């Protein structure tokens, strides 16, 4: 019987196979199908300590081998001076040696072909091996190798073997060389044929040269055609000259009409070349029509600057008057029709304080959106030019009035129609007020923090209609450090006076359990409600081998790895920093998957108690 392996024959449906012998570690059990080593967690898994399970059943008649290999390259136990010598340590060391001897004996029996053989002396071992290898077997193996060379390399064999193993020399090497000479002769014949082919290609090239010479002759003919076309175009130009001569009489007629116009319209010029007068006569009626881009005035003696009193837009029939040419105080309310002044009637910076009589402009004279930023000179508007309640929202274009247009102390309570003042966006400095009352949907916020949920640093206080429903909410701080009230729950992110580690238990996942896993798995978890330094404790135990435990934060290793080999609970404690919203977790594993590792009493402690939440107590 075998001590260290077990063979099975697949039937196409069975996936579970038993490990019938003891072992030290699961990694010592090797799984083969048809002699091919399989990979754990890819081809198979451990169902329990005595059974492996394939993902796909081995095919019918395939040999499944479960072979133990107890680590022949390294010892599992290394004795240290002064260490405690326990029974399980001696057992592990002795069992490794015992298992290795069993595996060596099984290998020897398998190689000799003698099942359950007893080898009392070295001579008995040699006899067993010599009996297993026969001359006929060697001859058959060599003949098979020679046959492979013949079938794959297409040459005569240099050696052949008789059935009794006698070597017979053949002239195979010479036959092979002769075959190579035949191939060389064939190659020379092919090259001669290629040279003949190149001769034919040279003849083709000569024919192409002849064709190109013919193309050049064709291009000469095309040049002659172009010359003929140039001659035709010269003839067309001569024909157009005759057409121009035909229009000479029309041009003469227009000159006569212009001469008559000179008799009816005349201009007087001064000695500086400027217009000093204009005369016109056109029968019984007279008209004065100017076709010009600009109208300017200059002094009679030619001194001074040229003045442009107004600009005419002939497309929109709008006249722009230069404000500096308007007599001071000449524009009164009686001169302006109700809502007659619009933005299109005023040039940029055309309204000056000196041109407007005090108190003359009221709401009746201004059309909606008639005043924009370009129509108001810097600091031109002060309190004397504004009648009470004259400025309403409808009279001012959006974003038209800027700080540069309003003189200091120009806007007072009497100049503002309170019913239409709905928003002020400006740096107002320090505001002193007795009370600020918001409407039912009002709020106070800093720039950029548009609503309660906005992560921008700042302040939001007031009504917000987002989740869970319309509520009065508060958000002060940043996305990571803040105080929030969403209408139902208060949230604090950041230090709350500084949480300090202590022995007051705030939360605990206290249930006890066990694991067979040889890799870390999450077993406990607590949600942190306050930022600060917390004391985390847990305990571990195992019957044999080693059990490990480690604190994780949000799925990543965080604390120091702890372990024990004792079969009574050992308590571990560590002070670690966490932020509100973090998850503190306990991960556990064992050294040997055939032995259970126990864990439990996962506690969260601090100096002063509030409330945190247990989210997993597996």
What share of the residues lie within helices? 10-25%
* Count of the domains: 5
CATH topology of the largest domain: Jelly Rolls
The CATH class of the largest domain is Mainly Beta
Mass-distribution shape = flat
* Uncertain regions spanning at least 5 consecutive residues: 153-178
Proportion of β residues? 25-35%
Descriptive notes:
This protein has five domains: about 5-70 and about 85-130, no CATH class; about 135-170, no CATH class; about 310-420, no CATH class; about 445-495, no CATH class; about 495-615, Jelly Rolls, CATH 2.60.120.380. Strand 15 (about 460-465) and strand 16 form a beta hairpin. The two termini are about 45 Å apart. It has helices spanning about 85-110, 120-130, 135-155, 170-245, 250-265, and strands spanning about 5-10, 15-20, 30-35, 35, 45-50, 50-55, 65-70, 160, 165-170, 265-270, 275-280, 310-315, 320, 445, 460-465, 470-475, 480-485, 490-495, 495-500, 505-510, 515, 520-525, 530-540, 545-555, 555, 560-565, 570-580, 585-590, 595-605, 615. Helix content is about 25%, strand content about 25%.
Could you list some keywords that capture this structure?
single chain, 618 residues, alpha+beta, 6-stranded mixed β-sheet, 30 strands
Provide the fold topology:
Elements: E1 5-9, E2 16-18, E3 29-33, E4 36-37, E5 44-48, E6 51-54, E7 63-68, H1 87-112, H2 122-132, H3 135-153, E8 159-161, E9 167-169, H4 172-246, H5 248-264, E10 265-269, E11 275-280, E12 310-313, E13 318-321, E14 443-445, E15 458-464, E16 471-477, E17 482-485, E18 490-493, E19 495-499, E20 504-509, E21 513-515, E22 521-527, E23 531-542, E24 547-553, E25 556-557, E26 562-564, E27 570-578, E28 583-590, E29 597-606, E30 613-617
Parallel strand pairs: 19-23
Antiparallel strand pairs: 1-7, 2-6, 3-4, 3-7, 5-6, 8-9, 10-11, 12-13, 14-15, 15-16, 16-17, 17-18, 20-29, 21-29, 22-28, 22-30, 23-27, 23-29, 24-25, 24-26, 24-28
């Amino acid at each position: 019987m075998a001590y260290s392996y077990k063979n099975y024959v697949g039937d196409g449906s069975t996936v579970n196979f038993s490990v019938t012998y003891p072992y030290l570690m699961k990694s010592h059990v090797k799984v083969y199908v048809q002699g091919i080593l399989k990979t754990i967690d890819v081809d198979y898994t451990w169902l329990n300590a005595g059974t492996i399970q394939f993902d796909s059943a081995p095919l019918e008649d395939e040999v499944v081998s479960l072979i133990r290999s107890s680590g022949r390259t390294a010892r599992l136990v290394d004795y240290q001076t002064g260490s405690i010598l326990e029974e399980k340590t001696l057992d592990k060391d002795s069992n490794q040696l015992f298992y290795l001897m069993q595996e060596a004996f099984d290998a020897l029996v398998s190689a000799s072909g003698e099942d359950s053989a007893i080898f009392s002396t070295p001579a008995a071992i040699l006899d067993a091996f010599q009996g297993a290898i026969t001359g006929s077997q060697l001859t058959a193996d060599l003949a098979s190798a020679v046959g492979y060379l013949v079938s794959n390399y297409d040459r005569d064999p240099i050696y052949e073997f008789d059935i009794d193993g006698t070597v017979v020399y053949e002239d195979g090497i010479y036959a092979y060389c002769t075959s190579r000479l035949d191939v060389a002769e064939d190659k020379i014949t092919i090259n001669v044929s290629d040279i003949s082919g190149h001769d034919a290609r040279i003849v083709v090239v000569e024919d192409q040269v002849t064709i190109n010479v013919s193309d050049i002759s064709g291009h000469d003919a095309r040049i002659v055609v172009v010359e003929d076309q140039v001659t035709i175009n010269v003839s067309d130009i001569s024909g157009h000259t005759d057409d121009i001569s035909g229009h000479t009489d029309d041009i003469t007629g227009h000159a006569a009409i212009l001469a008559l116009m000179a008799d009816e319209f005349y201009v007087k010029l001064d000695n500086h070349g400027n217009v000093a007068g204009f005369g016109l006569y056109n029968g019984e009626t007279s008209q004065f029509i100017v076709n010009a881009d600009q109208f300017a005035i200059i002094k009679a003696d030619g001194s001074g600057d040229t003045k442009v009193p107004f600009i005419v837009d002939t497309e929109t029939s709008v006249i722009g008057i230069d404000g500096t040419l308007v007599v001071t105080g000449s524009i009164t309310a009686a001169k302006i029709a109700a809502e007659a002044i619009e933005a299109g009637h005023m040039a940029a910076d055309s309204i000056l304080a000196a041109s407007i009589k005090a108190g003359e402009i009221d709401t009746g004279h201004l059309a909606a959106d008639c005043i924009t930023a370009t129509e108001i000179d810097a600091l031109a508007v002060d309190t004397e030019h504004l009648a009470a309640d004259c400025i309403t929202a409808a009279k001012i274009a959006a974003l038209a009035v800027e700080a540069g247009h309003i003189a200091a102390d120009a806007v007072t309570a009497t100049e503002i129609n309170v019913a239409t003042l709905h928003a002020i966006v400006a740096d107002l400095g320090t505001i002193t007020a007795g009370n600020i009352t918001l409407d039912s949907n009002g709020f106070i916020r800093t720039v950029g923090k548009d609503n309660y949920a906005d992560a921008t640093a700042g302040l939001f206080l007031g009504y917000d209609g987002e989740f869970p429903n319309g509520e009065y909410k508060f958000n002060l701080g940043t996305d990571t450090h803040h105080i929030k009230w969403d209408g139902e729950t208060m949230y604090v992110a950041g230090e709350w006076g500084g949480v300090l580690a202590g022995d007051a238990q705030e939360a605990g996942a206290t249930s006890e359990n066990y694991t067979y896993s040889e890799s870390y798995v999450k077993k406990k978890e607590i949600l942190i409600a306050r930022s600060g330094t917390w004391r985390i404790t847990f305990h571990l135990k195992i019957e044999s081998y080693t059990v490990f435990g480690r604190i994780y934060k949000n799925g990543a290793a965080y604390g120091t790895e702890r372990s024990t080999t004792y079969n009574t609970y050992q308590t571990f404690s560590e002070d670690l920093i966490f932020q509100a919203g973090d998850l503190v977790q306990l991960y556990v594993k064992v050294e040997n998957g055939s032995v259970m590792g126990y864990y439990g009493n996962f506690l969260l402690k601090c100096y002063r108690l509030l409330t945190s939440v247990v989210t997993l107590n597996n």
